[in-house]
Amino acid sequence: MTKALGLRIDVDTVAGAVHGLPALHRILRARKIRASLFLPGGEDRTALAALRILRQPGYLAKLLRTSAFRIYGPSAFAGLLGLGPRRVIDAGPVLADMLAAGDEVAGHGLCHTAWHNGYHRMSPAEVHRQVVSAVADIEQTLPTRVAGFGAPGWQAGFACLHALDSLGLAWGSDVRGTLPFVPMMHGYRFRTPQIPTTLPTLDELPGGLPPVKSDVLAVCQEIDRQDWPVYTAHAELEGRFYPSVLDELLDFCSMRGIEVMPLSGVLQRYLAAGRPLEFHEVVQAPIPNRPGTVATQG
Fold first, then answer.
1. Of 3.30.2310.20, 3.20.20.370, 3.40.50.880, 3.40.50.300, which CATH number belongs to 4-297?
2. Half-sphere exposure of 93 toward its Cβ, with a 13 Å CA cutoff?
3. What's the pLDDT tens digit per position in 232-257?
4. Three-state secondary-structure class, residue 82
5. Exposed, middle or buried by CB within 10 Å (0-12, 13-18, 19+), for 144?
6. Distances (CA, A) of 210 to 43, 65, 66
7. CA within 20 to 30 Å of 172's CA: 132, 225, 230, 281, which one?
8. Exposed/middle/buried for 121, CB within 10 Å: 0-12, 13-18, 19+?
9. What is the pLDDT of residues 8-17, one digit of tens each?
């Protein structure tokens, strides 16, 4: 059985959908690769991200290190002025093209920025409402069923994992970790398997943005080293500004005989290999070059 790389594409903003997804669509189709698209169900309110400067130590440093205003600023102002689509899922034919090509869809919160900023201040009832609403909005708007869910910014906990169980989704990708597992917290065992992101995202690379060659090479080496690697690309980064990085990663996989697939395929491949889905605790932990903490496979 060939080694697999799970590829998820987070589409956090309308600008990412309109201006970033077409480039990623061309890259994937040229290679006959399918991926998992993570889409917010509600309005793009990227301007709210500025509030994290006040609330989260290290966030301003990240904005400066990753040139975030150049990447996200125009989208934020367009949203404030009411220009163009207000939701990613209304962003045009590129989503239809990707779904027709076989890419699967996962929910990615209701309002990506509001979830990212405030998950740990939301009540369990509000978390449940947002997960259910996000999935419903996607399925009512797009001709597809939602396969899974990924909490924005890997901000997740008991309430999020419980909401996934209540919906009966096939999988979640709400955590960072090393391999597929079934989550548990405070002695409670959930049912929905988790397929964690295992590799750093572009905005977490130590050299900052634009990506330096040594950082990209290090990601390739991690793909080779890990048993069940999962990479998260962003329409706003690899799509709009750095498509050559994704090309380089996919070239490496092709050279090494690593099959790139959606996260559903990774879970199927893991189970087909006869590996049991073990229970692992989900904890809050820091990861390099990302402010704050994220849900992590213990």
1. 3.20.20.370
2. 0
3. 999 999 999 999 999 999 999 999 99
4. coil
5. middle
6. 28, 10, 8
7. 225
8. exposed
9. 999 999 989 9
